[in-house]
Design a protein that fits this description.
- By secondary structure, this protein is of the alpha+beta class.
- It folds into two domains: about 180 residues, no CATH class; about 130 residues, Mago nashi (Mago nashi protein, 2-Layer Sandwich), CATH 3.30.1560.10.
- Helix content is about 20%, strand content about 35%.
- It contains five helices and 22 strands.
- A seven-stranded mixed β-sheet has the order 19-16-15-14-21-22-20, with helices on one face. Strands 3, 4, 5, 8 and 9 form a five-stranded antiparallel β-sheet that branches. Strands 10-11-12-13 form a four-stranded antiparallel β-sheet.
- A hairpin with a 7-residue loop joins β14 and β15.
- α4 packs antiparallel against α5.
Length: about 350
């Protein structure tokens, strides 16, 4: 009897330990919304074109303001329907990947953030760029390839997330993966061609993305906890007047903000509001919420394994440096020219840009 009691106690301890290490996933209760009632491409197309957000405003005259909505001209397209450039075969390769994965629709549904509301994944052409590269001489075609996740928060509240911000006009195949621990998205990048010493080589890539920290970042099933002592973020300027600043946060939540140039607060030229350019050195105790988010996502990304540098080649883009001191003085430095390193890094950068205006700096 004593052995049986000991064995049962052991099972209880093991189960408790498992729950502590990895909380059990609980699927949210389904909440019906407008997205659930749409089953045809025509219905989804009308829904997307009527989205009010995001938008930007441009002043035409003293009493006229033009509102441009992001999805006003968005055209849903199946991957098999793209025909953007006859000179290259990337879309042809993407179509082969889509065919092999049976991705033959322009929209898909899932609850990516497990809030009970069905989200919408759309593929299509936003007509954001034009190029004279059609199959016929002098033909102008759209060079845009868009993939967005429309996150549903109920009561017609939709937040769009661009899943193609890194590759811009390059194409890939999104595939939704449903698991017992929720759903995520696999981005299947088609075979690329590179010329090497031995001729032409091909390679492909799959990027698994999960919704965390308010957006989609690279999925990490083997999270390692590092003792992060300090994080420094340097945003360099650009020819187009990009913000220049330095922010550091230590493990005690002490923050320093050195605003150098172009740190505009309430920048809105549509209504002739006078923008406030913040300059100087400031200090603050970083809020618990933002501290946990920044330290949490950097740990989740397993930052020591990220590349030390990323380069976009864009002339007018900004560049940043992320320096992380951890585990008794070890240092990881990431230089990113163009802010295109990874999905997770892009979210980290956004957090630091937002940190300029969401803390009580003094």
């Amino acid at each position: 009897m004593r052995y049986l009691t000991t064995f049962l106690l052991f099972l209880v301890l093991v189960n408790c330990q498992k729950k502590d290490n990895k909380p059990e996933f609980i699927k949210a209760e389904f909440i019906s919304s407008k997205i659930d009632s749409m089953n045809s491409e025509k219905e989804v197309q009308a829904f997307v074109n009527q989205l009010k957000h995001p938008f930007y405003e441009q002043k035409i005259s003293d009493d006229s303001i033009r509102i441009y909505r992001k999805f006003e001209e968005f055209e849903l397209k199946k991957i098999s329907e793209f025909k953007r450039d006859c000179r290259f075969d990337e879309d042809t390769l993407t179509k082969k990947v889509a065919d092999s994965l049976k991705i033959n629709k322009s929209f898909y549904k899932s609850d990516f953030d497990n809030n009970g509301f069905t989200d919408l994944l759309i593929i299509g052409d936003g007509h954001n760029c034009m190029a004279m590269a059609g199959c016929e001489d002098g033909e102008y075609i759209s060079c845009d390839f868009g993939v967005y996740s429309l996150m549903n928060f109920g009561k017609d509240s939709i937040n769009s997330i661009d899943l193609n911000f890194i590759t811009k006009t390059l194409s890939f195949v999104p595939k939704i993966i449903e698991t017992k621990n929720g759903s995520f998205i696999e981005l299947h990048k088609p075979l690329d061609y590179k010329i090497g010493d031995e001729g032409k080589n091909t390679f492909g890539r799959v990027i698994p993305l999960i919704y965390k920290y308010g957006t989609f970042i690279e999925r990490n099933e083997k999270k390692i906890e590092y003792d992060i002592e300090k994080i420094e973020f340097i945003a360099n300027g650009c020819m187009a007047g990009c913000p220049e600043f330095i922010i550091s946060i230590d493990k005690n939540k002490n923050g320093k903000f050195n605003a150098l140039n172009y740190n505009w607060f309430d920048k809105n030229f549509s209504y002739d509001l006078e923008p406030n350019d913040v300059n100087g050195e400031y200090k603050a105790q970083i809020s618990d919420k933002h501290f946990k988010e920044i330290y949490g996502i950097i740990n989740y990304l397993n930052f020591p394994n990220l590349d030390n540098s990323y380069y976009s080649g864009a002339i007018h883009s900004s560049s940043v440096i992320l320096k992380i001191t951890y585990n008794n003085g070890e240092i990881k430095t990431i230089k990113d020219d163009g802010l295109i390193g990874t999905y997770g890094l892009k979210r980290v950068y956004d957090m630091f840009y937002d940190l300029r205006f969401n803390q009580e700096w003094n």
